[in-house]
Amino acid sequence: MNNAENEKRLAALEAVKHVEDGMTVGLGTGSTAYFAIEAVGGMVADGLSIKAVPTSAATEEQARGLNIPLVTIDDVDEIDLTIDGTDEWDDDLNLIKGGGGALLKEKMVARFTTKQIIIADSSKRVEKLGAFRIPVEVLPFAVNFAAKRIADMGGSGEIRMREGIYFQTDEKNLIIDADFGLIRDPYLIEHDLNQIEGVVCNGLFLDLADMVIVGRGDGVEVFESS
């Protein structure tokens, strides 16, 4: 296991200490959340009783393989705790997410969640968001229109491709990875992206994280929202 992988694992193991019997738990998506799901699976095997809401088909498959009891977001009124990863985070605990393509369910679950814990390796902290491009999930028929509107906002956008074909989300939408450079006002960018017809969701997760747990070397650092 390389250093970054070890930092992800350490952050995940610290985060799952917040999982308690009887909770409804949101399970994030991605290489860091993977370690948290594995740890929760071990806790369930040891007798922990929870219900879990997966944020992607990949997470659902992993959780089922670990016999974690699953429900959908439509089955619950609220989620007690969610553990998820991030592509970037800043000192205000604002995030860019969606590198794995699960941003829509991740954001929906986050909005249902009482306590959102973000886990990351030490490379993900930034002074300003924007080095990682903002994923923008778009209805397929509107993707070129949305790309033009992003250009009108002063950004640029590329439709995400995988192995020479358009990447599709679990909901069969497309993703534009939008580049605005380092972002001075993420709230303005989020607002303007949400006004584009055909945009389903964007990867700016603002005022949603309650805690960020970072693996650093052989330990962890914990940051909480003020």
* Major β-sheet profile: 6 strands, mixed
The averaged pLDDT comes out at 97
Question: Number of DSSP helices?
Answer: 6
Distance between the termini: 34 Å
Would you list the SSEs in sequence order as H and E? HEHEHEEEHEEHEEEEHEEEE
Strand content: 25-35%
Strand tally: 15
Report a brief summary of the structure:
The chain is an alpha/beta fold. The chain has helices spanning 3-15, 33-45, 57-65, 103-112, 143-152, 186-194; strands spanning 24-27, 51-54, 79-84, 88-89, 95-96, 113-121, 134-138, 156-159, 161-162, 165-166, 174-179, 199-202, 204-205, 211-216, 219-224. Helix 1 (3-15) packs across helix 2.
What does this structure look like?
With 226 residues, the protein is an alpha/beta fold. The chain is built from six helices and 15 strands. The protein has helices spanning 3-15, 33-45, 57-65, 103-112, 143-152, 186-194, and strands at residues 24-27, 51-54, 79-84, 88-89, 95-96, 113-121, 134-138, 156-159, 161-162, 165-166, 174-179, 199-202, 204-205, 211-216, 219-224. Helix 1 crosses helix 2.
Note the main attributes of this structure:
four-stranded antiparallel beta sheet, 28% strand, alpha/beta, 6 helices, 226 residues, 28% helix, six-stranded mixed beta sheet
Blueprint (SSEs and pairs):
Elements: H1 3-15, E1 24-27, H2 33-45, E2 51-54, H3 57-65, E3 79-84, E4 88-89, E5 95-96, H4 103-112, E6 113-121, E7 134-138, H5 143-152, E8 156-159, E9 161-162, E10 165-166, E11 174-179, H6 186-194, E12 199-202, E13 204-205, E14 211-216, E15 219-224
Parallel strand pairs: 1-2, 1-3, 3-6, 6-14
Antiparallel strand pairs: 4-5, 5-13, 7-11, 7-12, 8-11, 9-10, 14-15
Helix pairs in contact: 1-2
